[in-house]
Amino acid sequence: MKLAIAQFNPTVGDLVGNAGKIIEYVHQARELGADLLLTPEFALCGYPPEDLLLRPAFYTDCATQLARVAMAVQDIALVVSYPLQEKGRRYNAASVIRNGKIIATYRKISLPNDEVFDEKRYFDAGGAPCVVEIAGVKVGINICEDIWQAQAAALAKSAGAEVIVVPNASPFHIDKQKVRFDVVKSRVAQTGLPIAYANLTGGQDELVFDGQSFLMNRKGEVVAQLPMFDDAIGLFTYEHGDWVPAEVPPAPSIEAQVYKALTIGVRDYIGKNGFPGALLGLSGGIDSALTLAVAVDALGPERVHAVMMPSQYTAGMSVDDSREMVGLLGVKYSEIPIKPVFDSFLSALSGEFAGLAEDTTEENIQARVRGTLLMALSNKTGRLVLTTGNKSEMAVGYATLYGDMAGGFAVLKDVAKTLVYRLSNYRNTLSTVIPERIITRPPSAELRENQTDQDSLPPYDVLDGIMQAYVERNQSPQEIIAEGYTEADVKRVIRLIKVNEYKRRQAPVGVRITARGYGKDWRYPITNRYSSGM
């Protein structure tokens, strides 16, 4: 049997466009001599469709485009996944199409309801295996979460499957591919069957899909793999009960994985939503520098506008470094001093502030002036504002509502500060675009004289370690202290995370790159008196 796997980037809701892509891959697979083409989970409608799945018309329109795809399937078989409504029930389904007709349909058995997944909100679970014969080989179908559990694969084996093919919509996080390999290896060990795994590519709101579709043989070895993040089609051979080995590219570094995920996330959020480009406030600091580099790599310099908004507290080196960086990248650049606007705010508020000492209020006004200016430019040009705050700052509230949080997409929302430094150094290994002084100087919001981040926060290696343990690994305060952090630091960071949830909840959507991002998979109550054991 000749199996083609197509991994590609659908757009949620673009049923006509997605169907057109599937048809193109059908033609390519047939020209390659494939007997079967395997496409990813929900290739027809994009993933995740979320509450589109509550609209009856969505299923009807999917069925219309499925019929269109079926007409194009001649002299080859196709596995295509889509939402199915029948007899008052709704399923995550995959059909096998051959010579214009659906010859079998599988309904997903295991419905994920954790992390970013909530399929039990939308679907009923199937209960029956689906095995079809393709070129003399009995092929069983599982869908994504099915392969993470034992039931569906066991049913396919008992129904006579000799090989299992799996459409997937498995979103990226750091080193996710290793997790997939371990899961699929356990299914191979359980069933003794080789497995083909097809995954989506591209960005969808906060999620990024990395492709890396692969084959695993009966020994639990990965014997073929498609590229990371790129659309691709590959042709593979099943003979003598197993896959014939093909190419397996080396795993990229963590920094390479994450940097590519960020660029894909920005590219597709801007592109799929029809924005003509992006703009951002450039401060001379490392977060805005990395955000600018990502934006340019995602969109091209001609679609990015960087705006420097110096105040009386902005260091000369910040302006100089910003000018140097925009010169290296070739983007549009503007400088708009904010002191006149800031002074006008203070004048308007002078009566209300009389007799009160200066504090963070005046600092936040500066950030909000900058946010207002950026949003005005966004309104006038149609370009989307990219915010520049990182996960560490967002966790503990080191950001200003309606100030530096004002914007449409938070590129670094799930990127810890220590990783920001690693990514910046990584980007400069490709070509030098971030001036070295931006990377090496102490980070500062520059909202008052001689300010640094560490005036208000623990050292970032401490903050990140506690934040990652508490947020990403669900560890208790006692467990975190046992790792070597002081009780005072742990109490302080966890308290800040809790009291700033109201602020984090209002942050823009941003790219998820960890197993516990600050989006759909972090749903903590704002009003919350749970003490976490302290």
From TrEMBL:
Catalytic activity field: deamido-NAD(+) + L-glutamine + ATP + H2O = L-glutamate + AMP + diphosphate + NAD(+) + H(+)
EC main group: ligase
Residues noted as binding L-glutamine in the record, renumbered to the chain: S170, K176
Residues annotated for deamido-NAD(+) binding in this entry: N364, E393, K503
Residue stretches making up the CN hydrolase domain: 1-250
One annotated GO biological process: NAD+ biosynthetic process
Keyword Ligase among record annotations: yes
GO molecular function ontology, one term from the record: ATP binding
Pathway membership: Cofactor biosynthesis; NAD(+) biosynthesis; NAD(+) from deamido-NAD(+) (L-Gln route): step 1/1
Annotated Gene Ontology cellular component terms: cytoplasm
Source organism, top-level taxon: Bacteria
Assigned keywords, A-Z: ATP-binding, Ligase, NAD, Nucleotide-binding
Function in brief: Catalyzes the ATP-dependent amidation of deamido-NAD to form NAD. Uses L-glutamine as a nitrogen source.
Protein name as catalogued: Glutamine-dependent NAD(+) synthetase
